[in-house]
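Study this protein:
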Amino acid sequence: MLFYIDPGTGSMLFTILIAILGSLIYFLRDAKLKLGAVIRRNRTQEEHAQTSPFVFFAESKRYWSTFEPICDEMEQRGEDVLYLTESQDDPVFKKQYEHIHAECIGEGSRAYARLNFLRADVLLATTPGLDVYQWKRSRDVKRYVHIPHAANDITLYRMFGLDYYDAILLSGEYQVEQIRTLEKLRNLPAKDLEITGIPYMDGMKKRLETEGAAQHHERTVLLAPSWGESAMLSRYGARILQALLDTGYHIIVRPHPQSLTSEKELMEKLMQQFPDGPQLEWDRERENFGALSRSDIMISDFSGVIFDYTLVFDKPILYADTSFDGAPYDCCWIDKPLWTFEVLPTLGEQITEDSLPHLREIIDRCIESGKYEAARDRARAETWMHEGESARRIADYLTACRAKLKAEMQDKKA
């Protein structure tokens, strides 16, 4: 006798069957992905099973000026360092190190896959956003240490940029206060904060002392903004470039490296509208030393390069009124004004939309006035502590940190 199933029951059974099959498919797919991740993790761990005592991670070759003095110091001490970089042409590969072992780990997801399963005692990096974006903390890295690549407010990173580091190497007391305030507001454990100075500025000053100032040249203005919606090229665009050309002076435009990636359309438009020529040049060199040395005054906004320029080269600056929007940055959590915006008026003159037609006059006045020299000394003392000592102090910190970790491990075994 054939079983009879009424249409309603049949429809219900069919729906249940489809649901079971769908769940099974999703279960198998999820299991496949998890199995793949385990296989990749095991393969990565097998390939890099040895724990490195020190790892330096550079997301770009442009941070070599920060890492080179530290690498030189670690090499001199005979400390083995694994230097991981995303740039195939990173200058580290040209150095004849014995103890610094460099490796290109690719870019993007490939680099993060290597970093996320890394085995190391101490990792040093300039890159913010640890455990916020694709770069996750590896369970086999004992200590993550951040070193900034600018001599200004530590809260000018994008939101939560440093929250998940264990330690931060700083250059001024005011930065300590900023980090402690964020930790309190976000209920974060206290990080290890060490004031060590700024290695790339130490290196830049040493190079300037060796090579000397640029030879006599026509009056040259350097435009070196930050990037993002609050930065100068986003706010002023063609207006500031045309105003600079109208001065008759030689102009060097050095966009922030991130602008060439994140603001590519804007950069291409401006470069087409204001192409390289006898009066204007676009500087896209990895190092900024040449542009800083050849110019007589810098125009910027809130970029950290302001302090490279005015504190190392001892030259005046102009800064643009960009109506800074702190919303994307850590500083929006803190009520106290940024140190950068408090010190800028003491280092140079502000330019606005209304003052653009008078830019030549403002430039001449700022260059020829000596009233900013004392303020440069004060700013230097506040944001560039331990001048000339940073590489040694950073190496001292890193080696002491590893020694402490080893002692803690031995105590646990005992």
About this structure: Residues 92 and 173 are 31 Å apart (CA to CA). The chain has a mean pLDDT of 89. The chain has two domains: 48-198+388-413, 214-383. Residues 48-198+388-413 form a domain with the Rossmann fold fold (CATH 3.40.50.11720).
